[in-house]
Amino acid sequence: MKDEHTHISSYYSHAAVLVILLILTTISVAITGIHLGPFSVAAALIIASIKVGIVISNFMHMKFESLFLKLMIIGVFIIFALIVLITFIDYYFR
Fold first, then answer.
1. pLDDT, tens digit, for every residue of 33-60?
2. CB 3.0-4.6 Å disulfide test: which of 22, 36, 45, 84 passes with 40?
3. Would you say the C-alpha torsion 14, 20, 24, 26 has a positive or negative sign?
4. Residues 6 or more apart from 82 whose CB is under 8 A from it?
5. DSSP letter at 8?
6. pTM score, two decimals?
């Protein structure tokens, strides 16, 4: 417990994250209007994954955690990406 430190985020960083998330949300909504065929779902998932990474990094304070915990989070994202990829491949070959 003596190694715990508090990390206080500034209003500027929260505002920057808000603007970035709003821009990415606008892009994901705009992609639904563009007909990309099967790639529209993939594009929406990529943008959503970027937004999740930003939220985890800033609001869950992962940028201040140890390397082991960061690698565990990255491992979860890799497993999720593999499951989505396998699902798309299965759907494509049916």
1. 888 887 888 888 889 989 998 988 888 8
2. 36
3. positive
4. none
5. P
6. 0.72
